[in-house]
Amino acid sequence: DQINNWYIRRNRRRFWKSGSDSDKMEAYGALYSALKTFTLTAAPFIPFLTETMWQNLKTPEDKESVHLMDYPVYNEKFRDEKLEFQMASVQKAVSMGRSLRNQFNIKNRQPLSAVALVTRDAEEKKVLQEMEDTIAEELNVKKVIFHEREDELVEYSAKANFRVLGKQLGGKMKLAAAEIAKLSNDQIAAILDGQALSISVDGQDVDLTSENVIVERREKEDLKVVNEGTLTVGLETKITDDLKREGYARDLVRGIQNNRKESGFDITDRITLQVSGDAELKEAFEQFKNFIAGETLASSAQWSDSISGGFNTDADDKTWTAKIEKA
Question: Which CATH class is domain 242-326?
Fold first, then answer.
């Protein structure tokens, strides 16, 4: 999953370069090294599959079979823990944003206006700011907005954790629950930040923590929010007409890419593209023609009122018709 859905996809433009500069060769070299090391590591557990992989990966200097090779030895010089933390932080934010899309049935190909991020971890925030472009691209949003406080995205409410406080307060529990329900946004934020906060319940002081207080979050209008540990992610879900048309264009790109694969085209093959559809799809095509051509390696992209021998691809309740040929 890390290779297919992250590394290869994130580096596809490096692979697509027409030349063979050092950047392109480094991208291929890192991929080759990862695949070869995986094959050696997994050979004892999936012997037949890794043997097939080995026959495609081995060099003249390597042994004929993967099962004749030495097991790989960990080499610390190839590990970059700072980079690992950067990627883990970005992938966490992206995963949380995608979970919101799934939860509210907003497909990944539909662009959104913004994602809002709040983190109580200074190092995590620094990394996310450095990787802002990657987050925007992965979540398919126009901009990434950083906020200082989570209550800029949500409104808090607090409830007593009866299971925890009940043991401590006994018959005073109902009084405590009433006091906790009155906590302000600032007081609840202080609890989440680990600051000391206490209330008096019938003469008994009670320290409030994130263990004995249950915090509920209510999103502001057109904002869907999820929290995990130190990080809160909010997606702006209002879809404008421009965003809708871009979503149609991205659906077309996906259909073309699938057809390229089914037709046996090489990843670097240039194509000619003909497209047809209704008036709204035509508007989307004209607006995002350059994007469609760039993403599909189309040397020419033309609108046609009718196409024979093409293929169809869905775009919500609409249908594109397209035809591709090698350029």
Answer: alpha beta
